[in-house]
């Protein structure tokens, strides 16, 4: 059987041999392969068309069928740019074997709404969360420094807060048990500084801090991570490496030191579950486990349907054997809120 992860690699490899529109089609299909909900081999067994899969047209379908019939000699080494990504089909197979694991999940701690570069309203994101029987979600729109992603300033954040309150009131009226948390994906510069006023961050339930600049440097970035973690406003370090499948390898650091510092400050590092991020990946998660660092799962969803990406993070955490008590999203809401308060108190009382 040729699993989707290997088909992805063949597609990405083929893209490098083609040019123009064909190259782009292969590249797109490779990226999409991580999102296909079922293994291609199962589809073929059931005589289903591969064109029902995202990113697959008749031409790519024919190419994949050829590979399935006569598997090419495996690409010896997957380039680092594409290493350690889990496919959704693989994740679901893994999770199906351990149903108790997914049942612990109570919420999703990174998603975007139409307040920044997402497509859904707060209410639509909440509806998608209700369908998944979540206890809470955190709305983490981009902050003002990230103009390209429609980052919001303090004023907009306040207005968004009023909308979130309204949505929560409506949810409570329908006697559902879901809380929309006020959060943000605060843009953090390489010196570890955020771009929002400290007061506006105090109004939020939870603050994610993420790097979005100087992500291609190859020099050791340990100091940058330590500075971001020591930023008193930050609870969770979002998509820590900044890697993107087949596009950017992400930053390097003395990871045991970074994770140890996060653990000392009782802060969390994220598994950004977006298929072409998967950041942290399994290899680094194992290092985080050794330092007993808290882990946060966030889909980084930009559309309501993308909440399903959570399976990639659940599978990565399972594969890295992260203990359940280290995962923020397994906490009941009150416990999560107690943690955010504790982290905040600890950090602000020191200064
Ligand atoms: Zn981000």
Please give a structural write-up:
- α11 (255-264) links the parallel β6 (236-237) and β7.
- The protein contains 14 helices and eight strands.
- The model has no long low-confidence stretch (mean pLDDT 95).
- The protein is α/β, with parallel strands linked by helices.
- It has helices at residues 4-17, 20-32, 40-45, 58-69, 88-97, 99-103, 122-131, 154-173, 198-202, 222-230, 255-264, 282-290, 310-319, 333-349, and strands at residues 107-108, 136-139, 179-182, 185-188, 208-211, 236-237, 268-272, 294-298.
What are the key terms here?
alpha/beta; 43% helix; three-stranded parallel beta sheet; 351 residues; binds zinc ion; five-stranded parallel beta sheet
Over all CA atoms, what is the radius of gyration? 20 Å
**Amino-to-carboxy terminus distance:** 58 Å
Identify the strand order in the major beta sheet: 4-5-6-7-8
Number of strands: 8
Silhouette: globular
Topology of helices and strands:
Layout: H1 4-17, H2 20-32, H3 40-45, H4 58-69, H5 88-97, H6 99-103, E1 107-108, H7 122-131, E2 136-139, H8 154-173, E3 179-182, E4 185-188, H9 198-202, E5 208-211, H10 222-230, E6 236-237, H11 255-264, E7 268-272, H12 282-290, E8 294-298, H13 310-319, H14 333-349
Parallel strand pairs: 1-2, 2-3, 4-5, 5-6, 6-7, 7-8
This protein binds zinc ion.
Residues 185, 210, 212, 238-239 line the site of zinc ion (ZN).
């Amino acid at each position: 059987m040729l699993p989707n992860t290997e088909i992805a690699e063949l597609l990405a490899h083929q893209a490098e041999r083609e040019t123009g529109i064909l190259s782009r089609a292969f590249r797109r299909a490779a990226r999409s392969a991580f999102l296909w909900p079922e293994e291609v081999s199962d589809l073929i067994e059931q005589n289903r068309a591969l064109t029902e899969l995202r990113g697959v047209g008749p031409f790519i379908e024919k190419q994949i069928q050829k590979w399935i019939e006569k598997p090419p000699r495996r690409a010896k080494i997957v380039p680092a740019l594409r290493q350690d990504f889990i496919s959704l089909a693989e994740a679901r197979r893994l999770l199906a074997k351990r149903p108790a694991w997914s049942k612990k999940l109570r919420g999703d701690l990174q998603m975007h709404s139409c307040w920044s570069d997402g497509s859904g309203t707060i209410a639509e994101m909440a509806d998608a969360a209700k369908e998944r029987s979540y206890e809470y979600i955190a709305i983490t729109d981009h902050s003002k420094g990230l103009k390209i992603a429609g980052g919001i300033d303090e004023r907009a954040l306040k207005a968004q807060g009023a909308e979130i309150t309204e949505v929560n009131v409506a949810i409570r009226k329908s006697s559902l048990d879901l809380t929309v948390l006020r959060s943000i994906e605060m843009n953090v510069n390489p010196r570890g500084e955020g771009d929002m006023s400290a007061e506006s961050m105090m109004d939020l339930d939870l603050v994610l801090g993420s790097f979005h600049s100087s992500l291609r440097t190859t020099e050791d970035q340990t100091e940058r991570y330590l500075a971001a973690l020591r930023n008193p406003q930050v609870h969770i370090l979002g998509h820590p490496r900044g890697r993107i499948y087949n596009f950017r390898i992400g930053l390097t650091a003395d990871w045991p030191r970074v994770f140890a510092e996060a653990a000392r400050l009782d802060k969390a590092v994220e598994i950004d579950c977006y298929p072409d991020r998967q950041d942290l990946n399994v290899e680094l998660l194992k290092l985080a486990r050794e330092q007993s660092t808290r882990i946060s799962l966030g889909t980084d969803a930009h559309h309501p349907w993308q909440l399903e990406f959570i399976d990639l993070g659940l599978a990565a955490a399972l594969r890295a054997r992260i203990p359940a008590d280290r995962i923020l999203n397994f906490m009941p809401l009150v416990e999560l809120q107690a943690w955010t308060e504790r982290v905040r108190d600890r950090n602000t009382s020191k200064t």
